[in-house]
Amino acid sequence: MSTEAVTRPDGAAGQHLSTAPGGDSPGREEVGGRWRLRRGGVVNIWQYANQTFDLSGGRAIFQGTNGSGKSRTLELLLPLCLDGDLRQIGSKGFDTVSMKRLMLDERESGGNRLGYAWVELSRTARDGSERFLTCGIGVKATATSNQISDSWRFVTERRVEHDLRLIGSGEVPLSQPQLRDELGAECLHDEQSFRARIAGTVYGITPERYGDLLHLQRTLRNPDVGLRVQEGQLEQILSDALPPLDSTLIQRLATSFEDLESIRENILRLTTADSALSSFLTTYADYALTVLRTRAKASREAARQHDSLHTTIDELAERYRSELDERSENEELVGELEQRDRELDSSLGALRQSPAYTELQNLHDRRALVDNERSAAEGALRTAERHRDQEQRSASTVLGMLERLSSDIDAAEQHRRQADAGLRASGLDGSLAPAIPTMPPTEATVRWEVVRGTADSGSEWLDVARHIPPQPDTEELASRLREVDEHAAAAVEAARERGALTLTLRQQAEETDRQRAEVSDAERQAEAAKVTATEAAARRNQVRQDLYDTAVTWLDRVRRWWHDSALASEAPGTPPPPESPTPEQLTADRFAARGGRERMREWAQPVLHRVRMRITELDRKLAETRSAVSERDTELAELRSGGERVPASPNRATPERDPASGEAFYRLVDFAESLPESERAALEGALEACGLLNAWVTADGTATDAATADVVATPGERLTAGSLADLLVPAAEPDCCVPDARIEALLRSVAVADTAGTAVRTDGHWRTGVLSGAWRKETAEYVGAGARNAARQQRITELEAELAELRAELGEVERQRAASARHAESLERELESYPDDDELFSAHARLSSAVDDADEAQRTANRSRQAHEQAEARWQAMRSELSRAAGRAGLQPETEALQEANRAATDARRALETLREAVGSRCLGTLKQLGTTVLHHDATVADRMAAESLAEQHCANHAEQAAALAELTASVDDEGKRVAEQVAELTREQEQLRERLPEVRERIAAAREEAGKLDEKLTAARARLSERESESRAAASALRRAMELPGLWAAAVAATEGELPESPDGVEEAATALLSTAVTRSSPGSTTAKAVHDKLHPLQQSLSGHFDVTTAEEDEVLTVTVIGEEGPLPVAEAALRISRRLVEQREYLNEQYRSIFADYLIRDLAERLRDQIAVARDLCDRMNRVLEGARSSQGVHVQLDWQPATALSEDLRQAIEVVRKPFAERGEQEDALLRRVFTELIESQRESVSGGYGEILAKALDYRDWYEFTVRVRDSGPDNRQRVRRLRQLSSGETRLVSYVTLFAAAASFYDAIESASQQHDPLRLVLLDEAFERLDDPTVARMLGLLVDLDMDWMITWPSGWGVSPKIPKMHIYDVLRPRSGHGIACTHTVWNGRGLERTEH
Q1: Three-state DSSP class for 1209?
Q2: Least confident window among 198-202, 218-222, 1292-1296
Q3: How far apart are the first and last CA of the chain?
Q4: Which residues neighbour 1128 within 8 Å (Cβ) at sequence distance 6 or greater?
Q5: Engineering a disulfide at 1201: which of 779, 942, 1145, 1270 sits with its beta carbon 3.0 to 4.6 angstroms away?
Q6: Phi and psi of 385, rounded to 5°?
Q7: What are the phi and psi torsion angles at 58 (to 5°)?
């Protein structure tokens, strides 16, 4: 979508259209130009020292990277210097940027700091002179307090750096007293008066309306606007930009609400107390219930224990008697067992004294000796067997070590062969690898022998195979292996040296190969660069020819344009039009076409000026004619409704006349019937000329007070003859307060002859003291009701004729005005249609690029050729050096051969190092272990031989003892065997008896001990019985005392939610009720005194200042008392009374709310909302009229619709309709609806907004949230049919473009509304944008800025980078803001777009 010139539909606002570069239209210059930005500056704020910005023409761009300071520069200039609000500096909203931080944190040195920010406005006055206005703000930051200690604002017509200095001696900014001395006290203002001064001087509006304008500027300046535009949030941005509700009304309403804070605070206090007491009472009720239940349980438990003790005493007595009986029975059994034990001892003694028992004992001892010898022989045989096995394992170990040594020597041999091959491949002698010694034999010899197998003398012997390993000379073999290691070390060093040599040569070879590749690449690049240079030269020539053809085509378009244009016919007698540039000039100068366009514009300005002057003259005539029609319509309507014409008021008469105090002279009199008509008119003329006709006559003939600014007629000296009473008679209305006598006296004091006093004559002459004169009228108009009625009818006839003539004249002037406007628009369109130079500009750009490309291609070709020659020389030198070095080493100079030699040397070195490791670590180590193993094997053989000899000896001893046992066994008879059996039987019986006897004795002791314990228990139980009776009575008494404590039983009743009786009859009923009540709500730990104490501190904090909370410990029970206005009360009763008072206070507050709603919300607020919605509706209509004229070349235009939001509730929709009615036309039901809806809105915001009532009401009653914008885009679809699309149906690029067009229309409409409402039509029309036009290309940005020019808007905009220039912009300043990453200070480069090109200025 591209935008074209905007047609301003709203009358005089169209005069702001800029058509001449760099200034206003001629029509505006006649009445004075509007305010524009001229300059701006920052002195000693942030990182600026003293910076002045040229803003002449009113349009400026600040660009730079993120963090460069462009946004901060805009924030320090505007709108700060036009509103003076230090809290609104930040572009992102209220208090987002701190002036304290800018002044104290971001500076080079410490101490206090003074600074200024200022802007200078200028305008052209009616007389052609230029008028200036400088406004700004000064701040002082104090380091000791670390804050802004003072700020002041100033407005003056003096100019900074011309006739006003802000920096004094020592390069220190002026303080506030110094600036006051410099400017005068009348030029310094506080924030409110500063804003009022700017509102009146620059905009001609009230401070309230100026606040709405500042709101719009801040909304558009917010950098999030660009992001929200990208996200398609245009509708929300438009809603935010609408004027908010009057803050003064909101504050007055908030004050009314805040007047109820005493009630609210009381409710809050009671609510806090109620909440705190409820929370505390929950714990305390649980505690009280727990105390009572505990005491009830204690009472019941004491009674139960008393009854249980009686039962226990009976049981103990029964058990005591049983234990005594059991002990007697066990004592008798012990006596019997001890008697039988003595009898068994006597029988065994007799049997053991017999001879047969003695022989049997000797046989037993011999058998034991034989068993011992057999065991020793079998152990010795097992030991010998183990030693034989150990000998076999030792031999196997020796053989294994020999095999391991053989494997290690074979591996060493394998490494030697690898090293030999590597040495030979690398060009070294293979004999450097040492020879490996041969391996000794590893097979064992076998020898068979016979050994004893068992201890029995008649058993067979065993055959055993003995393995004998070989015995190598380990010392000799170790010496030879060490020699191998020494030779291998020398070979490793030789292989390492050869590896280093081959590596160096290989690297040289690779470098030579790379150089050869570079030669090839350089050759190819040189050829390609040569081809490219040839092609670029051909393209340059072609583009130069294309430029010439484009210039010829453009000249043809200019000639056709002039041939079809009507400009020539409109300029008779003017100089001939400027000649068009030649094709050669167009080819040589890219701005030649643009200069031709500007010369044509300058040539056409006189024509356009005459047409515009004609329109201005017709506008003036239209305004005069309309004013005359309006005045006559008003006069005619008043006369037709019965009104009378009134003589002109006395000169400088200011007060309103009170009908109750008097009446005008002409309404008190009438002509005498005898006076002729001609004399009547002359007499009235004399009365009117001398001032008496409309003089005020009071009831007593005097002025009401000394300060009355009016002409009062007072009776003077009565004339005896020739007075005005002869010509006029009193004719006052019946209800007139001036009596006829007073009128008669006044008439008698005015003469009708030429005397020295006051006199009037019938020929029109008059005299008043030293003054005299004469005036005649055709007819009398005011004296007498008949004259006044006749004059009224005559005037009506005259007015009707005049109106008919004026309306005919008005129609003709309007027709001429419309024809002239169409003609002017036609001429402007023709001038605008002058062929643009875009194609020429593009062709010049292409030629410049082609020339640069051709030159660069030729330079590249030359560089490539030189690079190829140098690479060739380097390769030849490197190749020769490599051949010489490889020949000296006996190697081939090729890369692969050298790489192979290097690899072989490396492999040989690694093989030799591995060989050394195999010999030194493995072979020598294994050989050492082999020697140790052989010695161990020899020791094992010696141990085996000793074990076999010992086993043979033990077997012989066993055979000898076995023979002796056989002889002794044969000599024992049957008598000995019988005696042995009896001894064994009696011994077993005695053992069983002695095992039972301790058990019985233990039972006796246990019975004796248990009986003693039971006796003690009986004694103690009988003693405790009386104590239990006392405890039962004490527990019942404790429960009774707890029930009587103040508030404790009531708290327990609350804990059970009424399950407990209010006043139980006696302790027994209370205990039963307490123990039968289910307790479910108490939480763990909430029933203790500690839990109550934990809750007590929060309760005291919540009630502090209004209630005192005391605690007492009575009978080990914690009681809580609340002391308030009603005296001390238990906590439960206090909670109940506070809850009741809270309900009463809330009802009273609701009554007060209803009163406020009736006095303010329903009347004043609703009326203000009605006015504000009407203003917003008017702004929306104005935006649509502006957007209607902002059509693109493809017919695309935007239309806005502002209606109640679709998400509103039905009640709020109805309330909006009610608000739109005047207060006098609303009924009670409609007022009730408003009251209910407003209450819901306010209460809803009270729950979500943490601020005061001002913030709550501003949010709740913000009409902008009740409405929503709908943006519709009208254009032609792919089928060329008209279509309407919503914003979300557009592409992202179309969305951004449409959004900015709409926002610009909103700003222009706001300024148009201000101009229509103000007395002066020349305000500053300014748009502020931060981080604007993101993702829009330069041509699109240029069209956007061109649209702002069409809307007669000035701007200050920041963006990261870009230009966005176009011929439509007559002048624009572009500042590049630069800031070092580390360091202090700001730098700005200044470029000016003059409508034709960019000019860099020194800054």
Answers
A1: coil
A2: 1292-1296
A3: 37
A4: 1110, 1121, 1122
A5: 1270
A6: -65, -40
A7: 85, 5
